[in-house]
Every structure is written in C-alpha cells, then in structure tokens.
Amino acid sequence: MQMDGEPWKQPLKWDYSTFMKIERVPFQSRMISGK
Q1: What pLDDT does 10 receive?
Q2: Helices in the chain by DSSP H: which ranges?
Q3: pLDDT tens digits, one per residue of 1-35
Q4: CA distances from 12 to 3, 6, 29 (A)
Q5: Of 6, 9, 17, 35, which one is least surrounded by beta carbons within 10 A?
Q6: Separation of alpha carbons 6 and 21, rounded Å
C-alpha cells in the first residue's frame, strides 16, 4: 500500500510544478498582449 501511495504523490508534485509554469507563461503573455 505504501508503494502505491508514493507514486501518486510524485506525479502530484510534477503536476503542480507544470501547472505553475503553464499558468505563469499565459499570464505574462496576456500582460504583453494586453499592453
């Protein structure tokens, strides 16, 4: 059970990092496009 709980914990961290990076890019692009 512990082995099964760790795999889903790692992907979650990766998803969070990717989500933050993806959100940061559109945010900057939107600011440049809006100006």
Answers
A1: 61
A2: 2-34
A3: 455 556 556 656 667 777 677 677 777 776 777 66
A4: 15, 10, 26
A5: 35
A6: 23
d(CA 30, CA 25): 9
User: Residue 35 is inside which H or E element, if any?
Assistant: none
What pLDDT is recorded for position 29?
73
The span from the CA of 15 to the CA of 27, in Å, is 18
User: Alpha-carbon distance 27 to 19, whole Å?
Assistant: 12
Rg from Cα positions in the chain: 16
Q: How many residues does the chain have?
A: 35
- Cα(12)–Cα(35) distance, rounded to whole angstroms? 35
